[in-house]
Amino acid sequence: MKNVCKVYVLLFIVVFSFSASVYAEENKEGTLVYHVKYDYDAISKFLGMTMAEYDQEWAKGSSIAEMAKKKGIARRDVEGYFYQFHYEEMQKWRKKGVMTEKHYFHLVYRLADEIEEFIDRNPNLHKD
After folding, report:
1. For 14-23, what is each residue's pLDDT tens digit?
2. Distance (Å, whole) CA 74 – CA 55
3. Which of 5, 25, 44, 65 could form a disulfide with 119 if both were Cys (CB 3.0 to 4.6 A apart)?
């Protein structure tokens, strides 16, 4: 059992060193934990904005979906941007052997709801 833990820790360290934006690990229950840190500079470029414009809109309380609408970008295109991002990242993990088919389909099943929640998130909704 100790060897299995060592392998997971080593695998986690190696895999994490290859990606600063996404990493995955398997928890004690055998469920893959998939972490995403989005590149907001890339998102702002997709939206046709500078990072300063993006930050200004975010500070006003605009969600990504609202910013896209103001720029004339269809919602399905915004969703497609994030689906493509996740697809590419998950394929990397599948090729590395970190993500099994079971994990992949479990994550894909939840992905639509997570993307919808993310692009509709209002940054000012949860202020203290």
Report:
1. 333 333 344 4
2. 21
3. 65
**Are the beta carbons of 119 and 79 closer than 8 angstroms?**
yes
Other Cβ atoms within 10 Å of 96 Cβ, number: 14
- Fill in the amino acid letter for 1: M
Q: Can you spell out the DSSP letters for 63-94? A: -HHHHHHHTT--HHHHHHHHHHHHHHHHHHHH
Whole-structure pTM value: 0.69
* Tokens read off for 53: 């414009």
Strand ranges for 1-128 from DSSP E: 22-26, 32-36
Strand pairing partners for 77?
Answer: none
